[in-house]
Amino acid sequence: MNTHEPPSRRRRATLGDVARLAGVSSVTVSRVYREPQLVSPAARDRVEAAAAELAYIPNRLAAALASSQTHTIGVVVPSLTNGVFNDFLSALHNTLLGAGFQALVLDSRYLAANEERAIATLLGHHPEAMIVTGVDQTATARRMLEQSGVPVVQTMELTDDPIDINIGLSHPAAGYAALRFLLDCGARRIAHMMAPLDARAVRRREGFERELRANGLDPIVIHSTKPTSVSLGAELLGELLAAHPDVDAIWCSSDYLALGAMFECARRGIRIPDDIAILGFNDLELCAVAHPSISSVATPRYEMGQTTAEILLELLRGSGRRPADRRIDLGFEIRARDSTRRP
In this predicted model, what pLDDT tens digit does every residue of 242-267 receive, in sequence order? Predict the structure, then answer.
C-alpha cells in the first residue's frame, strides 16, 4: 500500500487485507475481533500485528447487526462547551469504558429540532441504550425513543411521565429553595439572571417566582438568549442595575453568570455581600476558588452520570431488570459561601 498517496486516493484496509498479510483466513481475522478465545495466541498476534501495520478498523456495525451488540451507548447533551456537562460525561466514560462500552455523544445546542436529528443519527448506529438530557423531547423524538427497542434514560430533571428511566432533580424545587435561602439571608429586592432560556432554567424560574409572590414580593427577571458566559454575567448585571438599582440579591441561572456579575460588582465598587448578595447554580469548581467564594445550588452531575451508567450496565449485561422506581430523584443542596450573608 502506497502510504504517500493523497488521503482522498487511499483505500481503507479491509478484513481480507489483514488476512493476507497475517497469513490466515478471513474467518480467523473475524474471530479475533468477535470471539478471540477461539483463536490461538500465535494467530491472534499475527492478526493484531497486521491490523496495526495496515491501520485496519473493524466494521463494528456489520458485527453488531449479526450479534445485536455494538458496545455503544448514544448520548445527547445540550452543549459540549458548557462545563456543566463535563462531570456528567466524565462519569459516563469512567463507568462505561471499564465495562467495554463507548459513549457516542452529540450536541443539540439547546434546540429541540437538533436534539431530534441527533437522536435519529445515533439510533441509526444501533446503540444498545440511549441517554438524553431533559424531558422535553419533541413528539417525533419521543416516538423514536419509545420504539427503539433499547433502554432509554432521561437525565438532569424529573418528569411524571418518563419514556423509560428518569434520573435527575426537581428544578422547580431548586428555584423555591434558592429563593428561601436568599430570604433567610435577609434579602428583599431579589433578582434572577438567566441564560440560556432552556426548559430547565424556565422551571427553576417558575419555582423561584411562585415563592416570591407568596411572600408578597415582585419578580425581577433579566435574561438573554446568548450562550452562558462570564462576560454575559457582567453585561446582564449592568442592565439589571440600570433598571433596578436597589436590588440587594441576585440568583444566577449558572455559576458563569454569577462570576461575571461578581467581577462587574468589583469594577463598580459594589461590596459583596454587603450591598448585593450573589447565588449561583450548579456549584462548579470555580465557586469555591473565587474571591469572594460564591454560594451556589449544587447539583449532583457526576452522580447522575454514574447512576445512569450503572443502571444501564445492569440492564445490558447484568440481571436485565429495571430499577423498582423508574424515577430517581438525586436532589440538590445549597452551599453557602462568602457571596451571601449567613442565613
Answer: 999 999 999 999 999 999 999 999 99
